[in-house]
Amino acid sequence: MLAVDDDDDMRELLTFILKQAGAIVTVAASGLEALAILQETNPDVLLADIAMPQIDGYTLLQQVRERTPEHEKQIPAIAVTAYAGELNERRVFAAGFQRYISKPLEPDRLIQEIVQLLNG
Fold first, then answer.
1. Is residue 85's pLDDT more than 90?
2. What whole-number distance in Å separates Cα of residue 43 and Cα of residue 68?
3. How far apart (Å, rounded) are the C-alpha atoms in residues 30 and 16?
């Protein structure tokens, strides 16, 4: 699992929650770092903050999708964002994310969303 967030505390929280649930977690502090990691690994899930400098979550996912050959399975993606509301939710789904979680995070909901995403 790859968790991308520019906030140190959020990366620590995501790591703690996911490891407690038994996940193997790699974290990135930026979209650029995430893209570099994705050249070396193929995580089961991408958790991406939307509001990040340089490359926001929308651009990150677009670049990830463009880099994945059509015959390969796309990485399931969850947007983790402080931007709540129906308009933002529609934008997240239009960008290609399969799930949307607003901050502050509820650990049980995060794990539930990941499980549902992986189980189809």
1. no
2. 13
3. 19
